[in-house]
Design brief:
Length: about 300
Amino acid sequence: MRKYLYSENGFVEKTIWQPNCWVNVECPDNDDFQFLTEQLQVPESFLEDIADVDERPRTETEGNWLLTILRIPMQSNQRGVPFITVPIGIITNDEIIISVCYHHTELIPDFIQHTRRKGIVVNNKLDLILRLIHSSAVWFLKYLKQINNDVATAEKELEKSIRNEDLLQLMKLQKTLVYFDTSIRGNEVMIGRLRNIFQDTNYLNMELLEDVIIELKQAYNTVNVYSDILTGTMDAFASIISNNVNAIMKRMTSLSITLMIPTLIASFYGMNVDIHLESFPHAFISIIILSVVLSTITFVWFRKIRWF
């Protein structure tokens, strides 16, 4: 699916393509591929690179074409992690600006609506790239708040009862933070490369560039803070689980020792030897009472040293 967007106090959708408009392509089909490769003459290698879900942020040139790949966050439908990052490619030349993403994300529609609400005019291709990076940093922060809420919820559940499901949820969130961290750092590196490419041109807006860098640093610092908190939480619950296991084993050992005393006495008096109590009329009751008394003394002693 593709849209033709022209910057007029915010991006306005057009019915047909015209020079200097933004062609936004999401989940491209065969018709989109044909339009990009045959009508706009976009190199097919660019589209293949963007399709790679593991493609890192980078820039590449071919002829007068410039390919810029960024990583943007999105909610995941997979059971592995709640959020992932996916590549989006911005393909540009002197009069064509194309963005291609093989996934439906919330970022692009929100970005378009934001430009309309604020009446933002995107002057050139670098301006669009920087604003998309800025929008990605905003969405990183939004998803990080959700991750923080999920961590707090999992912590409350773990305080009640330590379950494998809650621990696995924390592990998934930790994996998401790793994805966010690498993607944000890759986007930061990409800003430096774009700055070098457009340094001597009129495309570079230093004020916008500084805003993007500040937003990305905030997202990066937030990821590090949440990652450190989550790591500490995981370590704390690992220690709690270990202490609980030790406490259970200690109680089981104490119970085994307590029950071993009557078992040992019964074993002695169950031997097929002379025990000198055959003629005593209350021998059985006496042995039972002795076993109970010794077990009680052992139990009281273990309670005193807090083994029970």
